[in-house]
């Protein structure tokens, strides 16, 4: 049995996106070599698959990206990493999140690479590694201005020595995370870059040994090759979307398609209202199509009066409240809509620009970012992989 509302995940498109990013990194690096500026070596790719691979399904996505040649995969917490190992992923897995209140055994039992972002986390991992008689490789996180996780960039000489001398911990890489890479012209981006580079010099002075450096999320990767360093960490780009408001000529394609079917068509007279709260009043005789998808499927209630779907290649406005299990769209001007007709929330029904809706457009309708749209697609939505 399958529900009408399905999320189809196109793993071939994911694979092509990964290769398009890899090709871009290669091409730009060789252009830079010619011009003597920016990154001259293409960096490796840490493919970010946190949050159930941005709602696309962590296991199949990770498998595809591992096969495509990702240097590493990255997840938000130990639990996500353990799940990938259980599904047979062998590539190195980096855990981004803070580990202070986690059960650390998963890191050791499942060969995960933790991010150490505080002296306390370092001490806790050192203690477990010592007890287990093993040596653990880790990535060090520097806070260069995001002011969330990480060792502050401006007092590393005081905070790092204890970590660096931990006998059972070995530093593999150092990284930071940009807070404003997607805001062109925001000064914080350059400030973070110079602070990160100073932090790397401090590590040299503390003779922390050779290690890799990484910093770039999708927006930073597109914005400035000087922050590619040894590895880049795209998430959204892999899923075929450029972080707004940036543009790019990269040949990316969306990976997630969300569709449903019309289950009922209904006529409403002028002056009648529709749905909870009666907030939509028909100003003429209106034909509505009822679609069995609602906020339990991850469709935001704010789509009411703002969003649209595709039916028979045309846009139909979402009118009336988005309820838990269904919503209604105005199909008055679309001919011959009937039960069974395909409804597209994310995807295409033709080749005209108006016949495609992507997560960036849906996000703009309701004042959010495409990340939130993708991650939210409810657990109830039937996933299909192709
Ligand atoms: C989520 C995340 C990324 C990927 O961000 P995108 O904007 O999706 O490319 C990279 N690095 C860290 C630390 C993250 O948390």
Shape: elongated
DSSP strand (E) fraction?
15-25%
Which stretches are low in confidence, meaning pLDDT under 50 for 5 or more residues running? Answer: none
- Helicity range: 25-40%
Q: Biggest sheet: strands, sense, closure? A: 10 strands, mixed
Mean pLDDT: 95
Output the number of helix runs: 12
Distance between the termini: 18 Å
**What radius of gyration results from the CA coordinates?**
24 Å
Oligomerization category of the chains in this entry: single chain
Decide which structural class fits the backbone: alpha/beta
**Cofactors, ions and other ligands in the entry:** pyridoxal-5'-phosphate
- Tell me the number of strands: 21
Give a brief description:
This protein is an alpha/beta fold and 386 residues long.
Report on this model:
- This protein starts with 5 loop residues before the first strand and ends with a strand.
- The strands form 3 sheets. Strands 1, 11, 12, 15, 16, 17, 18, 19, 20 and 21 form a 10-stranded mixed sheet that branches.
- The chain contains 12 helices and 21 strands.
- α1 packs across α3 (58-68) and α11 (359-366) crosses α12 (370-376).
- It has 386 residues and is α/β, with parallel strands linked by helices.
- The mean pLDDT is 95.
- It binds pyridoxal-5'-phosphate.
- The site of pyridoxal-5'-phosphate has 12 residues, from α10.
Which key features would you list for this structure?
386 residues; alpha/beta; 10-stranded mixed beta sheet; 8-stranded parallel barrel; 12 helices; 21 strands; 24% strand; elongated; binds pyridoxal-5'-phosphate
């Amino acid at each position: 049995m399958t529900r009408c509302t399905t999320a189809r995940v196109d793993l071939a498109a994911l694979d092509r996106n990964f290769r398009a990013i890899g090709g871009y990194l290669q091409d730009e690096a060789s252009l830079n070599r010619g011009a003597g500026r920016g990154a001259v070596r293409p960096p490796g790719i840490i493919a970010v698959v946190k949050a159930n691979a941005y709602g696309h399904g962590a296991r199949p996505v990770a498998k595809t990206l591992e096969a495509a040649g990702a240097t590493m995969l990255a997840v938000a917490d130990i639990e996500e990493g353990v799940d990938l190992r259980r599904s047979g992923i062998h590539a190195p897995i980096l855990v981004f999140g803070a580990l202070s209140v986690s059960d650390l055994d998963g890191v050791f039992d499942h060969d995960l690479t933790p991010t150490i972002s505080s002296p306390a986390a370092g001490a806790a991992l050192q203690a477990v590694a010592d007890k287990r008689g093993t040596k653990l490789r880790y990535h060090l996180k520097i806070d260069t201005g995001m002011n969330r996780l990480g060792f502050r960039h401006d007092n590393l000489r005081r905070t790092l020595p204890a970590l660096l001398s931990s006998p059972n911990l070995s530093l593999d890489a150092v990284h930071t995370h940009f807070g404003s890479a997607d805001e062109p012209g925001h000064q914080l981006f350059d400030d973070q870059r110079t602070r990160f580079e100073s932090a790397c010099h401090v590590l040299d002075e503390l003779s922390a040994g050779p290690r890799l450096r990484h910093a770039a999320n999708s927006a930073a990767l597109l914005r400035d090759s000087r922050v590619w360093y040894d590895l880049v960490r795209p998430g959204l780009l892999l899923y075929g979307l450029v972080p707004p408001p940036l543009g790019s000529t990269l040949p990316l394609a969306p990976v997630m398609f969300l569709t449903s079917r019309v289950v009922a068509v209904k006529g409403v007279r002028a002056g009648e209202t529709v749905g909870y709260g009666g907030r939509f009043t028909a100003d003429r005789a209106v034909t509505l199509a009822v679609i069995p998808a609602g906020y339990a499927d991850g469709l935001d209630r704010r789509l009411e009066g703002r969003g649209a779907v595709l039916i028979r290649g045309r846009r139909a406005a979402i009118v009336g409240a988005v309820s838990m299990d269904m919503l209604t769209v105005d199909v008055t001007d679309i001919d011959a809509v009937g039960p069974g007709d395909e409804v597209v929330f994310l995807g295409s029904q033709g080749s005209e620009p108006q016949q495609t809706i992507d997560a960036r457009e849906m996000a703009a309708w309701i004042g959010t970012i495409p990340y939130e749209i993708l991650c939210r697609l409810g657990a109830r939505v039937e996933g299909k992989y192709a």
